[in-house]
Design goal:
With 382 residues, the protein is α/β, with parallel strands linked by helices. Strands 3-4-9-8-5-6-7 form a seven-stranded mixed beta sheet, sandwiched between helices. Strands 1-2 form a two-stranded antiparallel sheet. Bound molecules: tryptophan (TRP).
Length: 382
């Protein structure tokens, strides 16, 4: 029997109850300290994104030197990505919400990678056409958050390979089979696509430096499950003449059915709010969602509920509490027993539906320019 607190976090598998401090130690990343947050606050003009104030981002690598550089007039760029295995759900927005805020606040470029190849290699149930189609659908959702078309660039792997490949060739030569095997635990039947894939996920970290012929530092906001790829990237960076990318890691967001049912893939349709769910479905899913409530109203009034395990509270926390004051109020009244789950869900449903309405319109607009930001050629012929 595995110990009850055993957990696994890799790009291809997330399971068990994650102890985030232990995970940070296992991965060897640094804490996102109040001092670092204060520096972002200052650089961003006296504000912090809720994902930073509410502890969703909690870990980092080499953030301080990147911020030092920025403060001294050395711009960086943002990089994050999405493996398109199906429709996006609200938790998938966590890296992109932070990137958008940083792009707006700091005026920096954003590179987005859509890895239709990776998901085809990693998910036996999907055809190549399906991952490519989801890639485009997911891209519309991401761009619709409000990215600036003039400062946003997309690597859509199967379509951008000519742009990526000259660098991928160099990266791939530096990464050995035993390294990827040690990091990802591949088995003899793992297809060779996945064995090569880390090279492709590394390329965007270096691409702007290559394209511009000068050093441009990279900051990657991502789920901590992606860190293993970037450990390999960081190991090879300097040997290729590029800076190591800096990272900001978020916790994994529990699904609507609670931590026990968590998956990175949203593999159960009722475990996540998909961005294309109609308003009625949103309501049904949220009404059925797992909460930290008590068995009876009387008990809840008396003892209060437990927000830390509640999937509804996770939604308030990550995206839907419009202010820190609202978030604090929900948390406080939940714990005290004043706020009951039905009322809390009702308030949340209203906000989610409003967001969906706005998002659907923004998505139609984003479709008009999405093609124009897909990078298809290399900056240099060689
Ligand atoms: N591997 C990621 C996924 O499965 C996709 C991805 C590519 C990514 N490049 C990235 C994620 C950079 C975060 C940062 O979703």
């Amino acid at each position: 029997m595995p110990a009850p607190d055993e957990f696994v976090v890799t790009p291809y598998e997330v399971k068990g109850k994650i102890d985030y401090d232990r995970l940070r130690e296992q991965f060897g990343t640094q804490e996102l300290t109040p001092e670092l947050l204060a520096r972002i606050h200052h650089l961003a003009g006296g504000e912090l994104h809720p994902l930073l104030t509410r502890g969703i981002y909690y870990s980092q690598r080499d953030l301080a030197p990147l911020l030092d550089g920025y403060a001294n007039g050395k711009p960086f760029f943002l990089y994050s990505g999405r493996g398109p295995s199906g429709p996006l759900h609200t938790s998938h927005l966590v890296p992109f919400d932070l990137c958008l805020w940083l792009q707006r606040r700091l005026g920096v470029p954003m590179y987005i990678q859509i890895t239709d190849d990776e998901k085809f290699w990693a998910r036996s149930g999907l055809t190549r056409e399906e991952t490519a189609r989801w890639g485009l659908e997911n891209l519309y959702d991401i761009l619709a958050l409000g990215f600036d078309p003039k400062r946003t660039h997309v690597f859509f792997d199967s379509r951008s390979i000519a742009a990526l490949y000259p660098l991928a060739i160099r990266v791939a030569r530096k990464i050995s089979y035993s390294n990827v095997k040690a990091v990802f635990g591949f088995s003899p039947s793992t297809n060779i696509g996945l064995i090569f894939y880390t090279a492709l996920q590394s390329v965007p970290c270096f691409w702007p430096s290559w394209a511009e012929g000068r050093t441009v530092p990279c900051l990657i906001p991502c789920g901590i499950d992606q860190d293993p790829h970037f450990r390999l990237t960081r190991d090879v960076a300097e040997g290729l003449g590029y800076p190591k990318p800096s990272l900001l890691h978020s916790k994994m967001i529990p699904g609507l059915l609670g931590e026990g049912a968590m998956s990175t893939s949203g593999s159960r349709a009722d475990d996540a709010l998909f961005l294309n769910d109609p308003p009625k479905v949103v309501e049904q899913k949220l009404r059925a969602a797992f909460t930290g409530g008590r068995a009876t109203v009387e008990e809840q009034r008396r003892l209060g509920a437990t927000p830390e395990v509640c999937s509804i509270w996770a939604l308030w926390r990550t995206r839907f509490a419009e202010s820190d004051a609202k978030f604090a109020e929900v948390t406080r009244t939940c714990k005290s027993g004043e706020l009951l789950c039905g009322d809390c869900k009702g308030q949340l449903i209203e906000r989610v539906q409003r967001f969906y309405e706005h998002h659907a319109a923004a998505r139609e607009k984003a479709k008009e320019w999405a093609e124009s930001v897909i990078v298809t050629s290399a900056p240099q012929p060689l």
